[in-house]
Description:
Layout: H1 38-41, H2 46-76
Amino acid sequence: MSVPGPASPVGALTRPPDSLEAGEPTPGLSDTSPDEGLIEDLTVEDKAVEQLAEGLLSHYLPDLQRSKQALQELTWN
Length: 77
């Protein structure tokens, strides 16, 4: 008894088109990353980075310290 597999979504490619040779790009797809060029265009002030880092640490550090203490107590006992 054979069970059919799931149907392919409408418009989905199940195999490369016959007209494409190996190594050719698929039409409609780009080799460039969507965020290419953002690093050059992005200027970040040192003060902003410092404030973001401090905020991140102040948010997560208390929980991490409590977890560390709890793990130390478990390993000592």
